[in-house]
Structure formats: structure tokens, C-alpha cells
Amino acid sequence: MASSNTSTQVNTTTLQQANAELPTFSLHPRRPEQKPFTVTLSNRSLTVAALGLAILSHHRTLHLARLLLVFVPLALFVHNDYQNFLRLGPGGIPSTPQGYLKASWLSIWALKNPYEPAPAVPHYTCSPGLLRKATLPERNDPRPTTAGIAPHRQITQYGSTQCFQALTRALQAFASMNPSEFETRVSALEKHGLALFSRKPTRQNRFQGEICHVHDTDHSLHLFLHPDDVKVVLEQGWGERHPMAWEWGPWKPAVGPFFVMIYAPRSENELRIVAKIIEAAAWNMSGRTVHLSSCLPAL
């Protein structure tokens, strides 16, 4: 009994020391948002526009008037869409005009229904996933609204700052307590934000064994799950597939079909459920059963 108590004290001390040594993660000051495209004209502006079109029509420049009617609203729409791209914050694609063009191109190929599970693939069918409906309760509220490709963000029902800080510190503490198996650093996929990596991944991906990453802005996560676990997460309302999480014959986007957004936790109960999903992602990437929940502080 004394040995057991000593072991518990050592584990608790190790966790406290790990948490004490972790830096406070800086928070992005601006939440991701989207603004609808609208054009509002005052009476004076409307009068000037009507007179301008009338003059152009009477001076045999009808084609120019038609071009203005088409291209001016189009230019305003593109400008608003570009601003919405910037409002999502930093992500895997640079926040530049070139990045906007790439994101716009990728959006053509986005999933039509991100709530539908992807079909299983042969190399996954040898073992079932970890998550079960019986132990993963349904999320209480309707799904939040999401937007974007890269970045892909949650724009309603933002997570709490307290939960975000607790989660990032728990990930860092967990990695520091298991340094031969796991590490935390900047996401290889997003190029921003904290990510958890497996040092000895059993699943091959293009992102150096990345398990999950947390977004500074909306406090949601992206992670790689077993297809069975993707199905449970979608059915219980805790997330959705990334817009580029698909495969079609030889065409395979970098993230693969089992890359999922997990909605931002807003309470201690939701935080512990999210931690359970991260545990499933860590098992999927490393083959090891982990206990991230033990690193979470009481809120």
C-alpha cells in the first residue's frame, strides 16, 4: 500500500513539474468570421449610377454599360470573398492573393456532405476503432457553422479560452511525460498552432506522425482517426470530415479520407470528451493506448 501511495505521489509531482515548466500559449486576438456579400447604395449613389448608365447607353457605349453591370458586382463579390478568406486567420495556405486562389480552386473539389463517413479501406479493417456510442455521448447543441478549406474553421459556438489553455497544456504535459513516444511542436500541416506528434508512427502520413493540432482562433481541432472512430464521432455530433478528406481512385488529397475537425470544447465535460477523442487519434497513429485525460486539470 505504501508503494502504491508513493507511486501516486511521484506521478502527481511529475505532472505538476511538467505543467509548471510549460509556457503559456498565446491566444489569437481575432475570432474567425464570415461576412455576407451585400451592396448598399444611398439615394444619391443610386441616382448617380442610373444617370451614368443612361449616358453610356445614349452614347453608343451599351457594351461598356453591360460590362460594368457584370464586372463591378463580380469585383465586389471577389473582394468580399477574399476578405472572408483573411478573416479565417492563419492556416496551411498563406493568407495572400495566391493563397486565396489556391483555396478557391480546392473548394471546387470539397466534400458535398462532411457528415457522411468515408468508406473503410482494406488496411484499416483488420482491427476495430476505440470509440463506442455507449461511452461517447451525443453533443448537446446543433452543429456549429464551419467555413473554409485551408484554413478550415468553426465560425459559431467558439470554444472557451479556459478549455483551450487547459487542452494545450495537457498535450504538452503528456508529451513531456512520454518523451520517447510523443512530442509537441508547431503543426506540420497547418504551419501554425500546437500539434501532438507520434515519434514512432504506425500509420504513414505526410505530416511526420502528426496526431492532432489545435487552432488558436476558434479552439477547434483537426486530427486523424480510425474509420470506425470517424463514424462514431460524426454520428454523435462531435465533428465533421475536413472538406478535402476524400479519395477517388488515384486522386488522393494530402490529408486522406479520415481527417476530421473536432468542434471546440466549451465546458469541462466537453473538454474531457474531446480528450477521449484525441486518445483515439493517438492510438490510431502510434498503436499505443494513452491516457491524456489524466493530464487535464480541473476547471
UniProtKB/TrEMBL annotation:
- Which residues does the UniProt record annotate as the domain Luciferase? 209-281
- UniProt superkingdom: Eukaryota
For this protein, the record's InterPro entries field holds: Luciferase (IPR048273), Luciferase_dom (IPR040841)
Name used for this protein in its record? Luciferase domain-containing protein
